[in-house]
UniProtKB/TrEMBL annotation, chain A:
PANTHER family tied to this protein: RSBT ANTAGONIST PROTEIN RSBS, RSBT ANTAGONIST PROTEIN RSBS-RELATED
InterPro entries according to UniProt: Bact_StressResp_Reg, STAS_dom, STAS_dom_sf
Annotated source species: Actinoplanes lutulentus
Record's protein name: RsbT antagonist protein RsbS
Domain STAS: 2-113
TrEMBL record, chain B:
Superkingdom field: Bacteria
GO molecular function, one term: kinase activity
Listed name of the protein: Serine/threonine-protein kinase RsbT
Pfam families with a match to the protein in the record: HATPase_c (PF02518)
The Histidine kinase/HSP90-like ATPase domain, residue ranges: 35-134
SMART domains given in the database record: HATPase_c
UniProt cross-references to InterPro entries, sorted A to Z: HATPase_C_sf, HATPase_dom
Alphabetized UniProt keyword annotations: Kinase, Transferase
């Protein structure tokens, strides 16, 4: 069975799907990614689907599951590179991929992850540094 | 001229990939638009998976068709599985008996021009879809 490679670049795991995946290959990718997130402690996952000429409900569901599983493991997933015809077909199929963040290409995906990580860290700092301010604002 | 069909067995995951590839080749040959190619291949993928998962396997026949005005592609998905007891329910968005999203059948119907389903409990299911060039 073929396998989709998972590359680590800094704090990000990058997956570029270049083959027409059998269902088993998609499920394997889901497991591989969960393992790699835990093994590397990466906080971002980018899945490049620019080479896919279709995304059916099975692949769509797998992408949604990957996003949910990564979130539980403290990593954010961005799906990038969806072709226009694929987007039209997905919506007509009835799959709007709720809960999945998207970007037009890998570069924008990396920016999106960096921004959302920054926001998250700023929020944490705020909570730790100013407990009084938080208490006042809620009273 | 219009009956040069291709017959493909559907008994494994790999066969579903082969169905997608065959439908893509036919779609390009009759010059469906890119969006229509994508819709037809996606619909074929959903229905071939249903043939495998719910029908216990079966076969797919892809044929090039032609009416007075247009060329198109007809695909027949046939299995001898348990059949569908409640067709209305099976065609409802979000209804599933197999743990999926319940979009395969209803979604595939939206992606094609013609959709016919012939099923009887215990006798299997045959679904015929057609997509015409614009």
């Amino acid at each position: 069975m073929e396998r989709v490679p998972v590359l680590k670049i800094g704090d990000i795991l990058l997956v570029s799907i270049q083959i027409d995946m059998e269902d088993q290959v998609a499920l394997q990718l889901q497991e591989d990614l969960a393992d790699r997130i835990v093994a590397t402690g990466c906080h971002g996952v980018i899945i490049d689907i620019s080479a896919l000429d279709i995304v059916d409900s099975f692949v769509g569901r797998t992408l949604a599951t990957i996003a949910s599983v990564s979130r539980v493991l403290d990593a954010e997933t961005v799906v990038v590179g969806m072709r226009p015809a694929v987007a039209i077909t997905l919506v007509e199929l009835g799959l709007s991929l709720p809960g999945i963040r998207t970007a037009l290409n890998v570069e924008l995906g990396i920016e999106l992850l960096a921004r959302s990580r920054q926001d998250e860290l700023t929020e944490l700092d705020f909570d730790e540094d100013e407990p009084d301010a938080a208490a006042v604002s809620t009273s | 001229m219009s009956d040069e069909g291709q017959r493909l067995p559907v008994t494994t995951d790999q066969d579903v990939v082969r169905v997608r590839q065959a439908v893509r080749t036919f779609s390009v040959a009759v010059k469906l638009s890119l969006v229509d190619q994508t819709k037809l291949v996606t619909a074929a993928s959903e229905l071939a998976r249903n043939t495998l998962v719910y029908g216990g396997g079966g076969e797919v026949v892809v044929t090039r068709v032609q009416n007075e005005r247009r060329a198109g592609i007809k695909i027949v998905f046939a299995d001898e599985g348990p059949g569908i007891v409640d067709l209305t329910l099976a065609l409802t968005d979000g209804y599933t008996t197999g743990g999926g999203l319940g979009l395969g059948l209803s979604g595939a119907r939206r992606l094609v021009d013609e959709f016919e389903i012939d099923t009887e409990p215990g006798k299997g299911t045959t679904i015929t879809i057609t997509k015409w060039c614009r």
